[in-house]
Amino acid sequence: MNAKSNQVKVNEAEAIRIAREMLAECLGDLLELAIKLCKGVRRMKFYPAHILELRLKDNPKARKFYYEIEYDSAMIRFLIERFIPPAKTAMDLNVKTLEEFYRAIEQARSSERTLQ
Description:
This protein has helices spanning 6-39, 49-58, 73-83, 98-115, and strands at residues 41-46, 65-70.
């Protein structure tokens, strides 16, 4: 069994911390923008001329514009595909011996690793 020394574990933990900081620094603005797009952006839209005429007849002080929240569905789909893990699927094991069970479990784990 390969036991890692304490120094190797400390070095790996430090490398992981540095990598996370670098990613947060580089991708922080991008992720903030992605979150903003997923929550929706408030856009000012103007009424078409025929609707505006009807609104101004009823109320001369009526606004000529309205606000609409737009969502970026492509960004939402991208974030879901990248950051939400897929649901676990049930395995159907039909085995008679313990060796077959362990073989089936190892095969399922190896296929799961290839998907990731």
